[in-house]
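Now for one specimen:
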Amino acid sequence: MESNFNVPQRQSAVGIVIMFFDTIQQYARALWPILVVWIFKFNDINKWALFGGTLLVLFGIGIIAYLKYRNFTFFLDDQNDEFVITEGILNKTKTTIALYKIQQVNIKQSLLQRFIGVHALEVDTAGSKEQEVSIKAISHRLALDLKAKLLDNETKMPANAVAENTVSQTASDEKPFIDISLLSLLKVGITSNYIRSLGLLLAFFFTIYDNVMRFSNQGYINEDQFNGYVNKALIMQSIGILVVVLFGAIIVINVVRTMVRYFGYTITRQKGSLLLSFGLFNTKSTIIKPEKVQIVSFTRNYFQKKMDILELKIKQATAGEKEERKQAVEIPGCNAVERDAILKLLFGKIPQKGVMLQPNFRKLVFAIFLAIVLPLCGFYAVALNAGEDFLQFNWIVPVYVIFALLVLCFGFRNYRLFITGDFIIKQSGAWDIKNEIIEPQKIQALAVSQLFWHKNADIGYLTIHTAGGKMSFELGNYTVIKQYVNLWLYGMETSDSNWM
């Protein structure tokens, strides 16, 4: 039986529990300094007063949670094609969202929501920093029906065309056309995100060290005692062990994080939109409209290429770079065939690389100056002032130079811009080769610039701005870039694409 969203309705009654714990979390974040003081001063506080105050606070939070539940209603205004939400505690707020502005709907379920048996539904529109609407407690069937209503993406076709396509669309909507296996997630966890995991590990260890040194009474480590126990051989051995341990920890963290976050990843076509479902503990179900997609990128390195896997990312309209990173939809572990199927669904055809633009050699020279020459000058400037003790680490210099030079050379070789009439594809990266795809009709703004000392070489900079982020290409042929910019500007003015 189809749900009726034309009349205002509330969330599930058990949603009061969700709102109760959500309110506790909000107040705990705001009042955590007081909570810390209470914990350390627990023996000096009147226990009966603390117990009574806690009960009073919980009773107040319960009233707030009930008022949130009672005053929260939502419905669909079919006459104006709007989604209307009313919420508040004492002062009510009414939010109205035009259906055509909705670009993404997420269905989530935390551990608490799974235990209670409800789901959360979040609605995103272009240009907002946060979700426009967050319904925290509705049944799964109601969430699916509301999601389908909000993102009804079927193209209006003549009656005979609808009849011809009904059977094929129904069949394709019944089951996922892409299912990411655990083996693919394992491959992704082993071969990606090394820098991110290393950063998390270092942040964790430095936080523990800082807390230990702050709360211990020992103060700083005695330098004479440290020098008495440590010698160069022990340092080299410790560094080797640390590298092995860090590498093993990074692999384990990557595998666990990838499998927990993307467990059961399936992609289904639903009325012309993409339905993505994944998650082990916190499940998430997302629907995105192909015409709202701004940038699609796929990344793979040497090992992933041998294993026939890659990571695909879909960006829609956002309110800034921070939101761009948070709201990007990631599809890990798909192979080349599955990638082509997704790209064909999003763009109507598989993007092909056309005319190639490559950067001037000055890009490599400048990168070498910034990444190698300047750091070496700084190192030797400090070493000469610090004395011979600092020069014992001089063996690191050739290792760093060779490694940095290889990275820069491979990055320069892979840095390309490919242009066709329907697509702009930027290729970049030294180890992880990334391809970003933009449709010219979705460009919001174009910027070209040229430094005065680049005029004789006829090179310049290009920046393409979209609602989902920007794409930059440095030190390409300036004359060719301007020709394509004029062509894209004309396309922007004459395009009637409904991507917003």
Residues 232-262 form the longest helix (31 residues). The radius of gyration is 28 Å. The chain has a mean pLDDT of 79.
